[in-house]
Amino acid sequence: MTAIIERGAATAPVAQSEPPRRRPGFFGSSNGQKAVMAVTGAVLVLFLAGHMVGNLKTFAGAEAFNGYAAWLREVGYPLLPKRGLLTLVEVVLLAAIVLHIWSAVALARRARAARPVKYAARRKSQAGGYVVHVMRWGGLTVALFVAYHLLDLTFGVANPAGGAASPYQRMVEGFAPGRWYVTVFYAVAVVMVGLHLRHGLWSAFQTLGLARGRRGLQGAAGLLSAVLVLGFLSVPFAIMIGAVK
Amino acid sequence: MNLTLKIWRQPSPDDPGKMVKYHVKDVSPDMSFLEMLDVLNEGLILAGDDPVAFDHDCREGICGMCGMVINGVPHGEQKATTTCQLHMRHFEDGAVVTIEPWRAAPFPVIKDLVVDRSSFDRIIQAGGFVSVPAGAAPDAHAVPVPKDDADDAFDAATCIGCGACVAACPNGSASLFTAAKITHLGSLPQGQPERASRAKAMVERMDLEGFGGCTNTGECTAVCPKGISLDAIARMNADFLRASR
Amino acid sequence: MNYREGEPIRDTKAPDGPIEERWEKRKFAARLVNPANKRKLSVIVVGTGLAGGSAAATLGELGYQVTSFCYQDSPRRAHSIAAQGGINAAKNYRGDGDSVYRLFYDTVKGGDFRARESNVYRLAQVSVNIIDQAVAQGVPFAREYGGLLDTRSFGGAQVSRTFYARGQTGQQLLLGAYQALERQIAAGTVTMHARHEMLELIVSDGRARGVVVRDMVTGEIESHLADAVVLATGGYGNVFFLSTNAKGCNTSAIWRAHRKGALFANPCYTQIHPTCIPVSGEYQSKLTLMSESLRNDGRVWVPLEAGDARPPAAIPEDERDYYLERIYPAFGNLVPRDIASRAAKNVCDGGRGVGPGGLGVYLDFADASTRLGRDAVEEKYGNLFEMYERITGEDPYAQPMRIYPAVHYTMGGLWVDYDLQSSIPGLFVVGEANFSDHGANRLGASALMQGLADGYFVLPTTIGDYLAGARDFGPVDEVSVAEAEIAVRDRIQRLLAVDGDRTADSFHRELGKLMWDYCGMERTEASLTKALARIPELRAEFWRNVKVSGTNEELNQALERAGRVADFFDLAELMCLDALHRTESCGGHFRAESQDADGEALRDDENFAYVAAWEHTPEGPVLHREDLEYAYVKMSQRSYK
Questions:
Q1: Taking CB atoms and an 8 Å limit, are A34 and B214 in contact across chains?
Q2: Which end of chain C has the smaller Cβ count within 10 Å, N or C?
């Protein structure tokens, strides 16, 4: 018998809602992690936009493109040391990438812990079901691509022209018509980036609480992603079909 | 019509469960899904078997007690419909129907299709209220509320707390549920004094319960019987970030 | 079944004097408990609907130690959540001549002069506070563009005093109470036990001191003790099996209390709601209400000729009978619920019903669509139309809805005094579970008002007066606890041991059909006598032949149901007895023998202006009468013509 015979006593054990746990803090909370992802994602998008515009210099010829590449190293000189701003940008980008991946991993782990038993029926997506896969696997694909991309065009290690060649040369030789498979690989990766952004851009607004009127923002995100993809693809394809030599 | 049902059977929280196949005959298209299960259970009881345990109460789509994942979709594929309001006329004769409980770590299975959703109550306890003792309220017309705000509040307040959003979310997130309450109270002048602390406390509680984070997939709103909008989550995010500053 | 006449009873708690001062007087006379002592006093609240949720939250806020129970998985699921239409309050925000007195008057008249004037007046007074309280909690009532609250008129009223939140007023008010309750749970003043069902009342030394509950997950039988017990367990409409109640709604809590000595008042007063979706087949498990507000714009009709099987569109205007408009020109389609329901039954009995089995009438929005435009109709009733289409598969924009009356609310319940205390000291009853303020018929939008009035404003004051004397209560007698627990265990064992070949649901269906046919919208001496002969037979078969699978020590929904059905049998018998003894017609209780030349209900004020409060004794029921006096509202025959 569970009764305690005493006036005024509730007999059932009073459920302490939870043993006091350490508060997780901003970065430990799901919303904090999402905010980190949104902010770092925004930084990366800004970089991509700049990168894309810079790429278009290819169409202005070797001199302009190489000049642009050199300018990136000298901007602000002598106020800043050579490569000063570029190094700063690189540090920020690296931090953004690391934090972006960290938050992605943290959220993915949280998600896995939240559903220890899977559904037996194949999940039928009722919304844009591709999103999750694109974001997680797509993100991984993009990360691998970035590694190759740096080896190819930044360090020149994986580039036929080698690290000592001018940036323009590396670009033109890297995407030479004979190396069409590289271009195709780039195209696939860039489209992946575009899909990633299509959800990610809108998602960042949503996560930062700036989303009002979902459809409009989603449309804008799609448009911007498309512009970036086309901008990025224009150069290698132009080289591949021989329009730019 | 005749159907084959594949139902998750689990005698108690600690037992392993499994999918078990049943055949039901002479199902009328005018039956509700739960009435179809009633018929199955009547047969099971008379055969001396354990009837399938499932939660239900009002059977008119408002109490939020019923809920099962039907063919991989919480509450079935019919939009804006709870399981109790789903009718058999939407199924085809001879169909195979899989029926599973909500799957999420914070919703442990109690028996068969019955899960423990007390984590939702604890999220409300963290701050889903306006602190006002009975008897101290000013006249209802003392503070006019713009109709648009009242309508926003109402739209969010229609949440029935069924948990389909969690069941559908690939991350097992309770963001839509939590955001609905934050949006409801945060849209009204009466909810302003506690707005920031409410958002922070409720999100923290949601994390502590073990729900996943939101990645804006939109699966939740697609299955929500009341069509709660993703805009609610954006508002929750905004309130959370403001509170974290 | 025979009964004996007992001593008359009286409500001794309502003060004398002018009616508008009585509640003030009572509040002032009520003893207070100082805050430090409140912490030492405990209250059990069973049920978490509008009445129970608001009561537990308010008592917790006041500082009492509250333990709350509900059978659902969360207090937010209580069936108050399904109330659609609205909540009345005498705010007179419209300036259309409403007042506390008018709401009081309408409620007494609407209740067909079978409610207490003092209680009803208090209800009307408190109604204005409820709206203030709900708004402060963040209940999103409908508003106009100026930002002020919108109101509408509702069945049986000629002023616009019903506040609403689209078609989900009950949901929004309940969530307000639920949130207040959760706030107290977080504060530690209320301990919540969801998935617990009360199966026995513990009475010690003549006072209600606790409850025995079953943990519906583990099957454990637990006793919980306190200084007072509040029952807020709702109505017993599910005795009819098919009703608009939730599937889990049951009478067990109040019936157990009745068996322990609480008087049960007016069990036969049942409200049949006129606008429900008709039954579609044998497997039907519950009925769904379509809000009464539909009658504001819909027109009710049946074919003029019996047996006219043409589809509605093929029936020309002059071959339709808009019978409510014809019989009640003043109120038309807006007559009170009991009248609209019986009129529907009459036309169907005359063979003019529509749909499967001829049990339905049309509710037609064609005129409204022409007059207001389809968009306006959609704006007002869109969600209800959707619900109708989801259930029936028919499009109400294209063809008229079919509706039929269904059991909706029970005005009867445990007898309480002005303090809401039952005949067992320390047992308080609030909301639909008490015999309440609605007399023989409840007006639309008054149930939410009563539940919240009881829970937020009345009970917290009156229970304080009782608890102020708690120092003299003494310890709970261990024997009474042990006996109550043993009784619960025995009953469960008995149910499990029968091992027959019929399910509890099958018995429940048969009992419900019997009650609907013999003790439903229309009752006669013959039908009630038949029911009283049949119920004991069916009950005997139940205890001989019911099949309950599984064991007690698990989540066992078959066992839960069987226990509830067993209590419904006993209640059904008392309902029929009460209906048989009340040979007049009043409100929701229509005795075919008592009608005027036009077929309208005929009250017998000379012989029946009393509350029938039934006492349970081993020798059978004992009737105690509480005479009703009307000093303010003159008794008159209701007329809505």
A1: yes
A2: C
CA atoms within 13 A on the CB side of C235: 29
Q: What is the pLDDT of residue A213?
A: 63
Contact A12 C227 (CB under 8 A): no
**CATH number of the structural domain spanning residue A202:** 1.20.1300.10
C3-25 pLDDT tens trace: 999 999 999 999 999 999 999 99
Task: Give the active site residues of C.
Answer: 337
What mean pLDDT is predicted for residues C479-508?
97
Q: Could A8 and C186 be called an inter-chain contact, meaning their C-beta atoms sit closer than 8 Å? A: no
Cα–Cα distance measured from residue C468 to residue C29, given in angstroms and rounded to the nearest whole number: 12
Domain count, chain A: 1
Stated pTM of the model = 0.95
Residue C166 has pLDDT above 90, yes or no: no
What pLDDT score was predicted for residue A21?
58
Q: Before B13, cis peptide (omega within 30)?
A: no
**Full DSSP string of A42-98:** HHHHHHHHHHHHHHGGGGG-HHHHHHHHHHHHHTTTTTS-TTHHHHHHHHHHHHHHH
Strand order of the β-sheet with C427-429 is C190-193, C65-69, C42-46, C228-231, C427-429
Looking at beta carbons, which residues of chain B come within 8 Å of A24? 204, 207-208
Domains parsed from chain B with CATH numbers: 3-110 (3.10.20.30), 117-244 (1.10.1060.10)
Contact C191 A7 (CB under 8 A): no
Distance from CA of C191 to the nearest CA of A (A): 7
> Does B40 reach chain C within 8 Å, measured CB to CB?
no
Cβ atoms < 10 Å from Cβ of A76: 13
Please choose, from the candidates C564, C203, C234, C227, the residue with its C-alpha nearest in 3D space to the C-alpha of residue C414: C234
Minimum Cα–Cα distance from A16: chain C residue: C188
Most C CBs within 10 Å, among A4, A6, A7, to test the C interface: A7
Rounded distance, CA C232 to CA C45, Å? 7
Express each pLDDT in C318-335 by its tens digit. Answer: 999 999 999 999 889 988
Distance CA A160, CA B76 (A): 56
* Residue C294, both tokens: 């539909």
Task: Go through the domains of chain C in sequence order and give each one's CATH number.
Answer: 4-269+411-472 (3.50.50.60), 274-407 (3.90.700.10), 478-608 (1.20.58.100)
Q: Which residue of A has its CA nearest to C210?
A: A10
Residue B227 contacts A where some CB pair is shorter than 8 Å: no
CA dihedral C87, C93, C98, C102 (to 10 degrees): 40
DSSP C464-493: HHHHTTGGGS-PPPHHHHHHHHHHHHHHHH
Identify which of A6, A12, A17 has the shortest CB distance to residue C222: A12
| Domain, as residue range, for A204 | 30-111+130-240
Residue for token digits 């199955």?
B40
For residue A44, the SS3 value is helix
Tokens describing residue A244: 């730019």
What is the interface pTM, i.e. ipTM, of the complex? 0.98
What DSSP designation does C189 have? Answer: S
Q: Which one of C172, C182, C460 has the shortest CB-CB distance to B157?
A: C172
Q: Which span out of A236-245, C230-239, C284-293 was modeled with the highest average pLDDT?
A: C230-239
The verdict on a CB contact (< 8 Å) between A7 and C481 is no
pLDDT reading at A119 higher than 70? yes
Identify any residues that bridge with B8 across adjacent strands, giving them in sequence order. B19
